[in-house]
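Forum > Structural Biology > Help requests

Title: Can anyone predict the 3D structure of Putative FAD-dependent oxidoreductase LodB?

Hi all, first post here. I have the sequence for Putative FAD-dependent oxidoreductase LodB but no way to get a structure on my laptop. I'd be grateful if someone could post the structure tokens.
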Amino acid sequence: MSPKKDSYDCVVLGAGPAGCAAAALVAKEGFSTLLVEREQLPREHVGESLMPESYWTFEKLGVLPKLEASRYAKKVGVQFVDASGRESKPFFFRSHFDHPSSETWHVERADFDQMLFDNATEKGAECVQRTRVLEVLFDGDRATGVRLKAADGERTVSSRVVVDATGQSSLIANRLGLKQMNPDLKKAGIWRHYRGGERDESGGGVKTIISHTRDQKCWFWYIPQFNDIVSVGCVGDSDYLLKGRGTPAEVFDQELSNCPGVTEYLTGAEAMDDLAVAKEFSYTTKQAAGPGWTLVGDAWGFIDPVYSSGVYFAMKSADMASECVVDALRADDCSAERLGAWAPTFAEGTKWVRKLVNAFYSGSFRVGKFVQEHPQHAGPLTDLLVGKMFSPEMPALFADLDPWLERAKAMDAMDDDEPVAAMA
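Reply #1:
Sure, ran it for you. Structure tokens for Putative FAD-dependent oxidoreductase LodB below:
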């Protein structure tokens, strides 16, 4: 379906969580907003585990009542399993901060994205599907609109601001050469869903489980969802997973057999026919905004799935960027400085999650031992797992964690007989 008008205050490209959030938040402030989606919703997508701090953006969007009444599995914590199958003590978020924002959900993305898309419509955005973005239009370095193609033909739409929420397609970043792959996190993921996997609800809900394989070349996520469905994914170096070892399904099964922390949960479970693959997904962009445009969500960057930060980062970046878009439109100043004012604060916060991801892949991070030696950091570490990446306690946490990791690496190198129990 083609847009109804030729000109808008804001055009948002992509109707994932970031795009839907940005469109809703700009539209509800009274600005004409067009949300463009290439596919037809609902669309299939791997099940997601949310970070609890998403609560505040959900509240701002007005969708908390829908989430609270939904069928989604309630996420109450996270648990890590080492290479031998030994489980860490669960991190139950509410025991750290007793507030509704300390618990969240494991969502089915097809249904979740549809809810956010409908909410953008309810907030006043014009939302079109099955409409391709052929080109983002520029006048010099300023974005001025988009050229679209729908079933009824091509259409050029002008806009004061273009918000790129096209995910890893990153239309503007790729056009302007802004995308930078992270050479230290060239990972790949293979995942599928199962029916009938074990569900531990001892904490009042389900947990995300992160489990290493025996040789620690890969790790698995285990995310119980509603309707007796579990999302199970394997992540490892891209070359190791996807080159010369057979089909993705064969590699997935090989790695699963090497992961005692997950195989026992899947005893008697039925694998569903929905295997999917993604590779080399960790990247950043050189800049988050320019004259007349800004990037949000995965179009801005993506770190790694290990701490379930993807949807939270997408929605938080859209939340912060939308405030700048509204400010720029009100001031009639859609400069790079005004549209990108959110980015330094956001980048500073995501830096700490990136550092925690690097700690995870170091092979030497043992949460239990670190917290035992530095009990003052148990709270800040849980804060980071919850998504409180803007906490003023983060610098002090890493001032101790970074040298601790260096000592742990040195000890591991000296004692080859001691198994590395990452995150145990």
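The longest helix spans residues 310-331. The chain has 15 helices and 20 strands.
Shout if anything looks off.
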